[in-house]
Every structure is written in C-alpha cells, then in structure tokens.
Amino acid sequence: MKVLTVNFLTCAVKTCKTSPLSYPLHFRDAELEQQDMEFNPTFIRNIMPRIEWEALKVTAIELGFNNLPAEKPDLPAASQPSETSPSDPTDAPEPSSDDQTILQDLHKLLLETQVVEGKLVCGNCSHEYKIKEGIANFLLPNHLV
Predict the structure, then answer these.
(1) Cα-based torsion angle of the residue sequence 44, 99, 6, 109 in order, rounded to the nearest 10 degrees
(2) Pick the residue with more confidence: 94 or 72?
(3) In Å, what is the CA distance from 90 to each residue of 14, 29, 86, 94?
(4) pTM, 2 dp
(5) Which of 2, 30, 77, 100 lies 20 to 30 Å from 44 when distance is taken between CA atoms?
(6) Do residues 116 and 33 touch, judged by C-beta distance below 8 A?
C-alpha cells in the first residue's frame, strides 16, 4: 500500500462517519519497503492540490519521515501536453532547488514508500484494518456496518 493512498482513506465504521478523529488513519506496526520508481515531478505537482497536508504530516511523522515542511508547499501544477496543443517543455518554469528537494522528498514518501505489513488504526473507535502483503483489509464485521 502506497503512503499516498492513506491520505484518501477514513474509517468505514458507521459511528465514525461524522467524527474528525476517524481521519487520518494511523499506522501501527508498519513494515516499510522502498520501491524505486522513476522521479515524476509532474505527478507530484498535480496531486498536491488533492493532498490533505495536515494528515500527510501526521502520517509522515508516524512512519519516521520528519523532513516535510510545516506548511503545504506552493508548487504550481504542471501542465500536461495534449494531442491538440502539445506544450513545449522549455516553456515550463524550472523549479528552484528548494522546490526540487521538496518534490523529491514527496516522491519518495508518497510513491516509493510502501507499507507491506501492519495495521491502520482509527483514532476515533480504535478499529484496526490489517495490512498484509501491501493490501489493507477494509471489510468490516457485521456488528460494525
């Protein structure tokens, strides 16, 4: 399970639907694996508006990544070339060295870091979702549905 995925998940227990404590889910006993991927700054720039920064900081600290900035970086979205109007890559502004470092750190955390074993725990009801072989089990027992 990529760390990016957790930023979009909340507890599925019915009583947690309205509780702010049910998000983000917290890792417990997480076994991490780094999987090298080609650096993709365009993807990172374009996913940033969808990232809940405070939740990502909590997750990053829980997993031992303490180098995220306190405030969400203002990284302008990268334009994607299309068939009708291909963009010239030379038109794209070159990121500053600070932005480049942030992009690389985010790429490593969000895309290259995988949780292969462990649990995701709700901060509201303490329900545990087991992660096995990189897949979280979100099926709930009948009494929690």
Answers:
(1) 100
(2) 72
(3) 50, 45, 12, 9
(4) 0.83
(5) 30
(6) yes
